[in-house]
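Notebook, student rotation project (T.W.).
Task set for the rotation: take a protein with a known small-molecule partner, predict the structure of the complex, and write up what can be learned from the model alone. Partner molecule chosen: magnesium ion. Sequence and SMILES entered below by T.W., checked by me.
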Amino acid sequence: MKIIKLTTYRVPPRWMLLKIETDEGVVGWGEPVIEGRARSVETAVQELESYLIGQDPARINDLWQTMYRAGFYRGGAILMSAIAGIDQALWDIKGKVLGKPVYELLGGLVRDRMKMYSWVGGDRPSDIIEQIRTLQKGGFNTFKMNATEELGMLDTSAKVDEAVRRVAEIREAFGTTIEFGLDFHGRVAAPMAKVLLRELEQYRPLFVEEPVLAEQAEYYPRLAEQTSIPLAAGERMYSRFEFKNVFAAGGLSIVQPDLSHAGGITECVKIASMAEAYDVTLAPHCPLGPVALASCLHVDFVSYNAVLQEQSMGIHYNKGGELLDYVINKDDFKIIDGYCNPLTKPGLGVEVDEARVIEASKNAPDWRNPVWRHEDGSVAEW
Ligand SMILES: O=C(O)[C@H](O)[C@@H](O)[C@@H](O)[C@H](O)CO
Ligand SMILES: [Mg+2]
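Predicted structure of the complex:
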């Protein structure tokens, strides 16, 4: 069997789907995308084509290593997202050829169902209590929200109080009937991370995500020394070679590689295994589409240390498109009592509605995240 064609489709709300065709008619789908840089990743996929056309899609490991190493420069958000989506599609093809779901090709199920969580509160956390009540009716009991709006490198007690008050209200309203993670979203610099973690400790959030920016990873062990709140990060780390430094330094209790940013299934299964060796849990990042989510679930179902899975149903980014819009087998993604079952169809288990994808790609969005500014006019971390 040989790879003969790659086609990318940028679709609402802000995703990109990749179709890889073979000379025997078997097709694989992937989701190579960096939110806000879809066109850059699309070009990176096109640049990688020369390593793929005419090659045997079964040789995923060789194709992965070639895409990673052969171009001399490696790593980073754009290239690793392109490799990720191609890798996903190659696993989809392999499973379809062998008639097995990807998790079977990775050693089989380690669990019967996977715990899911839902975003609440949007970019500027608001109406959280109501949103939690609504999602509870849908079976969710685990949530994530942004902890703050813009925050200066050194900011006021009033801003700290505003962040803490929101969390206090949630605990007041729900007690321990729910769990929630707080995403600092890279908006909090190290000086304020120490203050916020101390003030939030009493409310026991399930985790604090990106307590500082990934480029400040050396703070993870220092912050972990001062708090019992589990610290999480990973959506802006793109390979084993970045995660290894974080595992060695310690400080993270949860790693959150994104299956569409960190090299795909081939790479993230390795990251998950490295994490387990350090007693670190896995909670793949996934505010994206159905192929990304399916890829996450296959890694979750073979990773003992997988504890939580993000999914984008109803997420504040999904304007103009929803998680299952391009999926025919929607029922396979049903969340029951806050859990997802394994995707048992061959490959990734996503039956892509290609006609819908092609139609939607005619109005490809150019989603960009907003540019926030502080009161002094300087750019703020969004
Ligand atoms: O935890 C999450 O889902 C992420 O922080 C998410 O908010 C961002 O990755 C966003 O998708 C970037 O455009
Ligand atoms: Mg995040």
